[in-house]
Specification:
This protein is α+β, with helices and mostly antiparallel strands. It is 51% helix and 14% strand. It contains 32 helices and 21 strands. A hairpin with a 5-residue loop joins β7 and β8. α12 runs antiparallel to α21 (549-584) and α22 runs antiparallel to α25 (756-766). The chain starts with 16 loop residues before the first helix and ends in a 7-residue tail after the last helix.
C-alpha cells in the first residue's frame, strides 16, 4: 500500500494585538502619549525644581552674607612664654603657618569646604597700638590705634600703586627693630600715610620697633573674603569713645606686614595672636547638606572637630563662625515656604490624577462594546486586563521616560530619585487605571439597554458612606489648617496641604447631588415653549452619564488650585507693596542722617520741580521725645517720635498710601499757633493724632510736653496704628504751624514716576548725607532670594497647569459623548434640523455642566481662600531682607479676581467652542455617513 500523502498544515494568520490597536487609532495614541509626557514631566520637574531652588537659596545665603560672619576662623594666642625664643619665632614664621593652613584645610569635615584662594593666615596684634606720630590725623585729639597684621599672599590679592612690596630683610626675630609694611589706598588717604613713612611700635622691654611703609596697594576684590572678613585691613574706621556727652572719635587702621615678619610682633605690646581664616566654598553645597553641615560646624566649634584643629594648629586654638546662625535662618525660611508650596503640589497632583483617570475612562467607554463582546465570547478578566495593560504600557512607558528625560535636562542641580519616583507614579497610575477600570466594568456579564442618567441615578449606600468620609476628612483638614497654619512641628502635613483639594472634592459631590434639581425645573419651563431645541438640549443634559462626577471633580479641583495659587501670588505682591510703603512712606522720600538734619531750601524747591513729582509733603521729625510719666510714675526711657506736618497735605498722603488716614480738621491747631514777635505760651494745647500706645500714655486730658520743637500741652484727638512719616509704633502727629522751632527734616513725595536721577542729583548738590529712597526700588529689593523666586515660579506653574488641566477635563468630558451627539445631529437633520439649530442644540446641551463647573469653581475657590486664609502666613515667602521687611507681622492670602474668573470663563468658552466645532464638522459630513446600518449609537 502506498504511503498516504500528507498535506502540510499552515499556521493561522494572526496580527499582533497591540500593533493592530495602535494602527487603528493613531491619533488617540499620540494624544495619550502627549498627555502622559506632559504629566510625567511636571511630576518629575517639581521635586527637581524644589531641590534646585533650595540649593541655590543655601548658596545664596552663604555668598551674600558678610564674610566676617561666614568665615571659619581658627585662632589662638601667641606661643607660650615658657618656650625658647627660637621655638616661639619658628611657630609664627610664614612657612610654619602655611604648613598648618594646609593641614587644617585637609582636615575639614565633610561637607565643609574652604575656598583656598580667599582663605588667609597670619599673625595680628589683638590689642590696637596707639600711634604717637604727630603727623597722623586726630579729629578729637585722640591718638589713632593701629593693628599690625602679617596677612598671607598680599601680592596675589592687591595691586601695587606706589612704592614697593614689603619684604622681610634677612631673618626676622624678636630682636629685629625695623620691618616693612604696606597700607591700602583708603588707609593712606584717611591717615595721610605716604610711602616711606615710619611708625614706632612700643615693645614690652621699653624699646620700639619701627614699621616703615614701603608701598600703597589697592585691593583687587575688596568685597571678597580676603579683604572683607576683617574690614579694617582695607578700610580705616572712626571709632567712638563711649560717653554720656557727645561722642569723641579716633581713627583705627591696619598695616600689612610680610608673613615672615611675625616674630617681630611677638616683642610688641599688642598681644599678638595667630589666626587661620577659612573662607567657605559653597559652590558644591545643596539643601541635602544642611544637616551634615550644621553637625560639622558644631563639631568644629566644640566637638571632635575642635580637638582635631588643636592637634594641627595648637592646643589653645578656638574655632569661631556664624555659619550656624546662617543655617538656622535658612532653615526658618525653608520651613515657612515648604508647606505653602506643598499645597500647590498636592492640588496639581490631584488634578492631574483625575484627568488621567478621565482619559482612561474615555478610552474604556469608547471600547465598551468591543470589550463586552470579548467577555461574552469567553475572554477572562485577566486576559482582557493584560491586553489593555500592554496597549497602555507601549504608549505610557516611553512617554514617561521622555518626560523624565526632559525634566532632567531642563531642571539641573537636583536629585534624580525623586524625579524618577514622580514620573514612575504617573506611568503606574496610567497603566493601572485602564485595566482596573475595565475589570470592574466587565466583572459581570451585562445586558444592553440600562440607562445611567445623572438626573435619575440614586446614590448607593457605599457612595453615601464614601462621601461622608471625605466630608469628615475635609472638615478636619480645614480646621487643622486654620488652627495651626501650614507650619507643623513634625514637618509638612499632607492632610493639611490637601485641604483645598478636599474642599473641592466635597463641593463636587454636593453639586452633583444638587445638579438634577435645577435641571428638572428648567426642563419643565422649557417644555412649555414652542421650539424643540431647548427642550432637547436640557433633556440630553439630564440624560448624561452619572459618571459625570469625575469631570466636575477635575474642574473644581483645577479651578480651586488655580484660585489658591493666584491668591498666594496676590498676597505676596500686596505684602511687598505694604512693606515698601512702610519703608518709604510715599512714592519717594528725601531725608538727612537720622531724619534730624534740616533740609536746605534749595533741595526742597528742586524736589518739588523734579519730573514726575505731584506733591511734596514737608515733615519735621524728632525722635526720643519724653512722654509724661504714667499713673504709676514710670517713665519711658525710649520716648516717642514727634512728627510735625501740614494737616491737609499729610492727611491726603496718609489716605493715598493707606497708612493711618485721619480727618485733617482734627489735627489743625488754629488757636495754638504762636504769634509773630511774641513768645509762644507753654500752656497752649495742640491736638495730636497718636499711636495707640502713646494715646494710652497721654490719657484724655491735656499733658505737658517738652521737645526741641517747643514746649506745649497736647491732647489726643485720634489714634492711628501706622503713619507714613516713620515706621515706629510710638509716635505723635502735630500741626507743624503751631511749633515754636519749625524745620523740615524729611520730604515725602507723591507722583507716578518720580525722577530718581534728578532727585539724587539735587540731594548730592545740597550736601553730604542726604539720601533719596524710592518706593519702587524698595519694592524690587524684596525679590532677591532664589528660594522665594523658585516658590513663586512653582505657583505660577500651578496656576497655568490648573487652568490647562481644567480645559482638558472639559475637552475629555465632551469627547466622551461626541460620537453619540454626532449621530443625534445626523438623525435630526433627516427630520429637518438646520445647521444653526444643531449648533444651538449642542451648545445648550454642554452649557449646564459647564456653567455648573464654572460657577461652582468660583464659589469653591472663594470659599477655600476665605477658609484657609487665617492659617496661612506668606510673610516669609514675600519678604526676606531689605528696609521694611521686618515691619510686617503677617501677610495673609488675598483673593485674586483674575485667577478666579479667567479659568472659569475659559471653561465656558471652551465648552461652547467645542460644541460649535462639532456641529460645524457634523454639518459637513452627510447623514448617510453617520447613519450606517447596524450602528448602535
Amino acid at each position: 500500500m502506498s504511503p498516504r500523502s500528507r498535506t502540510p498544515r499552515t499556521a493561522a494568520a494572526s496580527a499582533p494585538w497591540v500593533r493592530t490597536r495602535l494602527r487603528t487609532a493613531p491619533g488617540a495614541a499620540c494624544a495619550f502619549f502627549l498627555l502622559v509626557l506632559v504629566t510625567a514631566f511636571l511630576a518629575a520637574a517639581f521635586p527637581r525644581s524644589v531641590d534646585r531652588y533650595e540649593g541655590q537659596g543655601l548658596r545664596h545665603d552663604l555668598d551674600v552674607v558678610e564674610p566676617r560672619r561666614s568665615v571659619l576662623e581658627v585662632s589662638g594666642p601667641q606661643p607660650g612664654l615658657e618656650l625658647p625664643a627660637a621655638a616661639r619665632e619658628e611657630a609664627v614664621r610664614g612657612a610654619t603657618m602655611a604648613a598648618a593652613q594646609r593641614r587644617i584645610l585637609d582636615a575639614l569635615p565633610d561637607p565643609v569646604r574652604a575656598d583656598a584662594a580667599q582663605s588667609a593666615y597670619g599673625v595680628r596684634t589683638s590689642d590696637p597700638v596707639a600711634a604717637k606720630e604727630t603727623w597722623l590725623p586726630r579729629p578729637y585729639g585722640i591718638d589713632p590705634a593701629l593693628t599690625y597684621v602679617t596677612q598671607s599672599a598680599l601680592p596675589d590679592h592687591a595691586t601695587l600703586r606706589t612704592g614697593s612690596w614689603p619684604k622681610a630683610r634677612g631673618q626676622v626675630t624678636m630682636e629685629t627693630r625695623e620691618v616693612e609694611a604696606a597700607v591700602t589706598e583708603a588707609t593712606a588717604k584717611a591717615l595721610r600715610i605716604k610711602a616711606g613713612a615710619t611708625v614706632a611700635v612700643p615693645t614690652r622691654g621699653g624699646g620700639k620697633v619701627t614699621v616703615r611703609v614701603t608701598g600703597i596697594v589697592a585691593p583687587k576684590h575688596p568685597k571678597a573674603s580676603y579683604w572683607s572678613a576683617e574690614q579694617l585691613l582695607r578700610t580705616p574706621s572712626l571709632v567712638p569713645i563711649p560717653s554720656k556727652d557727645s561722642p569723641r572719635y579716633y581713627w583705627t587702621a591696619a598695616l600689612l606686614l610680610p608673613p615672615d615678619a611675625g616674630p617681630a610682633l611677638l616683642a610688641t605690646t599688642g598681644q599678638p595672636e595667630l589666626y587661620w581664616r577659612l573662607a567657605p566654598d559653597s559652590s558644591r553645597l545643596n539643601s541635602r547638606d544642611v544637616d551634615r553641615l550644621r553637625t560639622a560646624v558644631a563639631s568644629l566649634e566644640g566637638g571632635p572637630g575642635l580637638l582635631t584643629m588643636r592637634q594641627l594648629a595648637g592646643e589653645t586654638v578656638t574655632v569661631t563662625t556664624d555659619l550656624d546662625e546662617i543655617l538656622a535662618s535658612y532653615d526658618g525660611m525653608r520651613a515657612a515656604i515648604e508647606p505653602v508650596v506643598t499645597v500647590a503640589a498636592v492640588g496639581i497632583g490631584a488634578v492631574a490624577a483625575v484627568v488621567l483617570l478621565m482619559t482612561g475612562g474615555l478610552i474604556a467607554g469608547r471600547r465598551h462594546a468591543e470589550l463586552a463582546l470579548l467577555r461574552a465570547r469567553g475572554g477572562s478578566l485577566a486576559g482582557i486586563g493584560g491586553r489593555m495593560l500592554a496597549e497602555t504600557a507601549v504608549t505610557a512607558v516611553p512617554a514617561g521616560a521622555l518626560g523624565l528625560l526632559l525634566a532632567v535636562l531642563t531642571v539641573g542641580e537636583a536629585r534624580l530619585l525623586p524625579a524618577v519616583a514622580g514620573a514612575g507614579a504617573v506611568v503606574v497610575l496610567v497603566c493601572a487605571a485602564l485595566p482596573l477600570h475595565t475589570a470592574l466594568l466587565h466583572r459581570k456579564h451585562q445586558l444592553h439597554g440600562a440607562r445611567d442618567d445623572l438626573a435619575t441615578a440614586r446614590p448607593s449606600r457605599r457612595r453615601t458612606v464614601a462621601e461622608l468620609t471625605l466630608l469628615v476628612l475635609a472638615v478636619g483638614a480645614v480646621a487643622a489648617l486654620r488652627r495651626r497654619g501650614t507650619n507643623s512641628a513634625g514637618g509638612t502635613d499632607l492632610l493639611v496641604s490637601a485641604a483645598p483639594v478636599l474642599v473641592a472634592l466635597i463641593a463636587a459631590v454636593v453639586l452633583v447631588r444638587l445638579y438634577p434639581l435645577p435641571l428638572r425645573l428648567a426642563l419643565r419651563s422649557v417644555a412649555r415653549l414652542r421650539g424643540a431645541v431647548g427642550f432637547l438640549s436640557l433633556a440630553r443634559a439630564g440624560r448624561s452619564s452619572a459618571s459625570g462626577t469625575l469631570p466636575l471633580l477635575a474642574l473644581l479641583v483645577a479651578l480651586t488650585t488655580a484660585a489658591f495659587g493666584g491668591s498666594v501670588l496676590a498676597g505676596v505682591a500686596d505684602a511687598r507693596d505694604d512693606a515698601a510703603v512702610l519703608a518709604t512712606g510715599a512714592d519717594a522720600r528725601i531725608s538727612g542722617p537720622g531724619d534730624s538734619v534740616p533740609l536746605p531750601a534749595a533741595l526742597i524747591r528742586a524736589a518739588g520741580a523734579a519730573d514726575g513729582v505731584r506733591e511734596v509733603v514737608r515733615v519735621q521729625i524728632e525722635y526720643g521725645v519724653s512722654l509724661p510719666p504714667a499713673a504709676g510714675g514710670f517713665e519711658d526711657a525710649k520716648g516717642a517720635t514727634l512728627i510735625g506736618v501740614d494737616p491737609d497735605a499729610y492727611a491726603r498722603l496718609a489716605r493715598d498710601v493707606g497708612l493711618g488716614s485721619f480727618p485733617a480738621g482734627r489735627l489743625k491747631a488754629t488757636d495754638a499757633r504762636p504769634e509773630k514777635g511774641r513768645p509762644a505760651s507753654k500752656d497752649r494745647v495742640l491736638p495730636v493724632i497718636a499711636s495707640p500706645s502713646v494715646a494710652e500714655r497721654l490719657g484724655g486730658g491735656a499733658r505737658d510736653l517738652q521737645s526741641l520743637a517747643g514746649d506745649f500741652k497736647v491732647r489726643v484727638a485720634g489714634t492711628v496704628t501706622r503713619t507714613p512719616a516713620v515706621s515706629d509704633t510710638s509716635f505723635m502727629i502735630v500741626d507743624a504751624s503751631a511749633l515754636t522751632h519749625r524745620q523740615t527734616t524729611a520730604l515725602l513725595l507723591t507722583g507716578d514716576r518720580p525722577d530718581a536721577a534728578g532727585l539724587r542729583e539735587a540731594a548730592a548738590d545740597a550736601g553730604k548725607g542726604f539720601s533719596v529712597q524710592l518706593r519702587s526700588e524698595q519694592r524690587a529689593s524684596y525679590v532677591d532670594t532664589p528660594m522665594q523666586n523658585g516658590a513663586e515660579r512653582i505657583y505660577l506653574a500651578a496656576i497655568a497647569a490648573g487652568a490647562g488641566y481644567a480645559l482638558l477635563a472639559v475637552l475629555l468630558s465632551l469627547l466622551r459623548t461626541a460620537p453619540e451627539r454626532t449621530t443625534l445631529l445626523a438623525r435630526l437633520r433627516t427630520m429637518g434640523l438646520t445647521s444653526r439649530q444643531g449648533g444651538r442644540l449642542l451648545g445648550f446641551e454642554a452649557m449646564p455642566q459647564a456653567l455648573l463647573a464654572a460657577v461652582g469653581g468660583l464659589l469653591v475657590g472663594r470659599a477655600t481662600i476665605a477658609l484657609l486664609a487665617p492659617g496661612i502666613d506668606l510673610v516669609h515667602l514675600a519678604l526676606s531682607t531689605g528696609p521694611g521687611s521686618s515691619l510686617l507681622d503677617t501677610a495673609p492670602l488675598r483673593t485674586d479676581p483674575w485667577s478666579l474668573v479667567l479659568p472659569a470663563l475659559g471653561v465656558i468658552v471652551l465648552a461652547a467652542a467645542v460644541a460649535g466645532a462639532q456641529a460645524w464638522w457634523a454639518g459637513r459630513r452627510g447623514s448617510i455617513t453617520e447613519l450606517r446600518a447596524g450602528d448602535s449609537r
